[in-house]
Amino acid sequence: MSQPGDPSATPAPAGVLxxxxxxxxxxxxxxxxxxxxxxHRVSEPQLEWAREVLDRxxxxxxxxxxxxxxxxxxxxxxxxxxxxxxxxxxxxxxPAMVRRARSELPARVxxxxxxxxxxxxxxRVDAVLSTATFHxxxxxxxLFRRLAAVLVGAGRLVAQCGGRGNIDRVRRTxxxxxxxxxxxxxxxxxxxxxxxxxxxxxERRLLGAGFAAARCWLAPRPVRPPDPPAxxxxxxxxxxxxxxxxxxxEPFVAAVVRELGQPLELDYVRLNIDARMxxxxxxxxxxx
Length: 288
Hints:
It contains eleven helices and seven strands. By secondary structure, the chain is an alpha/beta fold. The protein has a seven-stranded mixed beta sheet, with helices on both faces.
């Protein structure tokens, strides 16, 4: 049965490819945990995109900002440099990411292991920044309500994640390889956890969650990773590998990379989000 906020709940718009992740999901979250060391090493494209997102967030330098889905802390470090008199609260649901972020970041960054769907903070924040995270969360309505609940009046949400059409070719190839022996027992018919939303439904969900204004748009950002197997393994296929026994993981990655061909170009599409809460002046009352 389709759930509220699930892309399978509505037919695909004309010209939009429906892949396995658009069918009803057998679970709602992304990878159980991550290879944080490899991700930290290969995530230069994500860091480059994050710097552009940071440039969209106007800061005085004394604000408190939440990094929602901080990963290994690379983006939080860049954010901290823009807040000489401010604070960064960095949260992630993955234990390995949180451990790595704590080892990478100075002590004045408050790093916490928190599921964004259960987000609660003792104080409101001036802004929320998020990159490469929201597409791992199926329930965007609840996600946006939780983010709205921790923002001050007139607080800003500035984010980017995978959007409609993101790595279509990679996902199609992974579906095809995953349907064959010996992988099919574990991956055949699997829907995956991703939620690559479009700008129209995202704007509606943000306004429905309590934001006063929302603007969203898609941007293609093709990537040629310098180490294709490592990047594809740690980023694109991480959720697939959770379902495979150890002895099938490397053969699966090798088969997908081989069929994608060389030079490998990944067809990334990013969903950009700018939203603002109602109000004129900051209000740091206790968060909900």
